[in-house]
């Protein structure tokens, strides 16, 4: 059975939905592309910045989206941090959405260090290498933890790991536990997978209405991220790459040396036992569970989530 990971956790919804409210009009928005030289080629990383990086009064926040294979769109509620005077940098990781697509690259091209190199390139481009925070959601939190363990970035001040497994096997175990509580027709459709794409998505919709995003109807920005993978003529290169096969960071978490906030939702696929190692093994880490949320508390309890993160970053 193909167990859906972070990039595959929500069913497609009606295009009639509206986008969520963005920060106040006083917050400037800038977007564009950054050249990313890698292995003799130059690719393009799409970015979107809320707030003023040039005249900042607070440390900027870099948001790492989930997947591997999603886009930044569904994390846009974090732009609310700009109303707390934090410039917020979003970007689409290479191979995804508005950044360079590379469907012909071999499997070995897609690895964690590729995404860490792209991150380093982005940080240097914006000139924030001496001071920044990271909020990483799902795969983004996993990627952030790898960044610290592998590279010990001197400029990283504070880290938020949101709804992230500490080992891929725990994510798989949790998903199967939760799925087992659903009707047999749902379990059969998930087991069949993309052999019956419509049946598969309908089944996932039932599961993730409880454990993925409990907001109804599902937000448009979340749909946008998914359409890049599952829409007409979608590019699923990164989603299908074996980047996280056998991945486990639990034995290295003691090497994370920055103040860390760990977040999950009460109904999250990233249940407590899936995320607990971050809180227990990162020195001094704090753990917060959002009681009315699943995998996307920044949608489900948006105001409380933003306030919690802003207070942690400003502590």
From TrEMBL:
AB hydrolase-1 domain ranges (all copies): 60-301
Coiled coil among keywords: no
Leader sequence segment: 1-21
InterPro entries per UniProt: AB_hydrolase_1, AB_hydrolase_fold, AB_hydrolase_sf, Peptidase_S33, Pro_imino_pep
GO molecular function: peptidase activity
PANTHER family: HYDROLASE, PUTATIVE (AFU_ORTHOLOGUE AFUA_2G14860)-RELATED, MONOACYLGLYCEROL LIPASE
Pfam families on file: Abhydrolase_1 (PF00561)
A GO cellular component entry from the record: membrane
Organism listed in the record: Polyporus arcularius HHB13444
Family: Belongs to the peptidase S33 family.
An example Gene Ontology biological process: proteolysis
Protein name per UniProt: Proline-specific peptidase
Protein keywords: Hydrolase, Signal
